[in-house]
Amino acid sequence: MKKNQFTLIIESLSKLTHNQKRLLHHHVVEDLKRGDTDNLINECIGDDVICPHCGNEEIGKWGMAAGLQRFKCKSSSCGKTFNALTKTPLARLRKRELWAKNLEYMLDGLPIRRVAELLEVAETTAFRWRHRFLKAPAQRKPSEVAGIIEADEMFFMESFKGNQTIYDRKPRKRGGMGDRRTVDDKIPVLIVVDRSGGLTDFVLEEHSSDEIHNAMRPIVNHDSILCSDGAHAYRSFAKEENIQHYRTIVSKGERVIGGQFHIQNVNGYMSRLRGWMRRFNGVGTEYLPYYLGWMRMMDSKKDKYKEVRLAYLIDENLAYGLVA
Fold first, then answer.
1. Residue 218's domain spans which residues?
2. pTM of the prediction?
3. CATH assignment of the domain containing 258
């Protein structure tokens, strides 16, 4: 904008009514917030831009649109345009000026209905934002755990929360507890941690030795030492993979072997996870991996989890877009 045009705007402020000034203030603040988010997005993509459509590294700038830098692929077989969010979990999400507040409310653990009220958006929008934001953390897992490894399983009630119809069982009233004598109506989750901070989890199709073996085999370093409870699945896995194994059987009074072999770290994490999940009054099984990723992200930050910034989450999602 030219200087004389800006001067005219400033001079006209005195002619506005009080309500008009409040409305103008609202629009200016929202535009500044959106600009801050747009700047973060443009900064996170950096200079190493590749085409999300074909992977070509020869890219040219192609103007601005909606506050974001656009690019064009120079490949003759592609030639498509894109921005930093194209083919990432954050693509096509609106109201970028509210993303920072949405993240803040997420870290406070507020329910979706309350987040929607505070942001003045539809519940479906708050729901969509939460799960788009969590898509990258859900996929962010270590490729290997090593050293002294602890493994154990926990169970979550199978939930069709959000679905209109349940086909294979009668609905439970107010969540319910399920049958305590069986795990048939529960979803098994395998938790694996090592002593250097490595942490990963797996939502299993069924509670079986084969499922546990298939989950652990690609990530467990063969020079590791496995610690578990007395479950047969871990004993057979250690035998098959020729891994040293210590079993702590609480019913026999065994909690720590040799002063360092135990499963207290994995059990402590599972306790924190179980307590944290209670605030959601049940999580739909379809979205369980997203919430596990959310907890891993927060646990990695320990007491500083509220210092997670929008820039971090944007960077995670942009990186996810590059490898997805």
1. 143-283
2. 0.77
3. 3.30.420
